[in-house]
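Protocol step 4 of 6: structure prediction from sequence.
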Amino acid sequence: MAYSDKNRAMFAGEIEEIKDKGLYKEKRFICSPQDANILVEYPEGAEKKEVINFCANNYLGLSSHPDVVEAAHKGLDERGYGMSSVRFICGTQDIHRELQDKVSKFLGMEETLLFPSCMDANAGVFEAILDQDDVIIADRLIHASLVDGIRLCSAHYDTFKHMNMKHLRKKLELHQDKRTRLIVCDGVFSMDGDLMPLDEVCDLAEEFDAMVLVDESHASGFIGKTGRGTHEHFGVMDRVDLITTTFGKGLGGASGGCVSGRAELIELCRQKARPYLFSNSMAPSIVAGSIKVIDLVSANTDRRDKLEWNTKYFREQITAAGLCVGGQDTPIVPVMLYNAKLANDMARDMYAEGIYVIGFFFPVVPAGAARIRVQLSAAHDKDHIDKAVAAFAKVGEKYGIIGLDKKGIIEKYGM
């Protein structure tokens, strides 16, 4: 047979090496709706346990909101289970148009185009609007899906140091011979929780006749005074040319994504973006639920405001407890551990304390930058946060990292 015993042994050995290093990603099964409290089977086959979830992208707590669930049921009843087609053939319903219009208004953009996911949006946008005469200049820590989309494009590709405006300026000066310069960045970077200074980016874009594309997946719905995103936070809502974002995180937590921006660019995506042309449409139930989400976040900022309070409180408390934290004032709070095995071991012990978090290490983050990424939600109450901080303090004490900075942790455990 083609898959020989030799091949089987080789791959099995590689898996054992991962386990021996303490880096094995174990299976975890959630046996309840996504929420602040979830029922989890871990390890596989073990008795189910209720834990507090601090590692979901459920920023606004809308993944199981009764109004969203009801809207999704209605969409299922009135528009069916699936479209069985791509958008441009017979995969577009009136509710797809309605969602696009609502998203455009919410984000303050001219037009919007829906995709099956934000990864598909990022895979399609670059090839649709750029060619070999253009250049993409991207922050070095952009999301992996942006990198994958850029690889599919024939434009030249260059990078600048993370959030370094002086380096971006040099790259823009270098590429003045190109037809079009497109600056690409995240609004909120998913692993570190830091905010791209979009006002400075837009200043440079205007100085050097460049366009700006921002992935807002970890910002839409809760960053900015009314939750419009990073472009609202920095006061540049009319200066960003393209936004890609998702309905799979703060905006409901299901699936689907979009590109929103200048009308001509969106039309080119409609005509040429391959994931739009060759992937099935968002399911009607998800579209209907997403419409309800946009209505909810447009009506008031209650959930966004609670998330902001939760974020500030957790950061204050976890820092006071003596943990080493990174990032900025966003709901993504990396507890920095630097050692991959330490991150995995601490996450396992946190689960025993009733707190569900995951260790992140290479290749998800750079080597030597292992962490537990804590994600706050509007679904969390103060009691949830207090329990999480207490658990971190207890587990941190066990591993002797309380009060240690980066240098101290690395000296104790290595990178």
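Step 5 (inspection) to follow. The chain has two domains: 30-59+302-413, 66-299.
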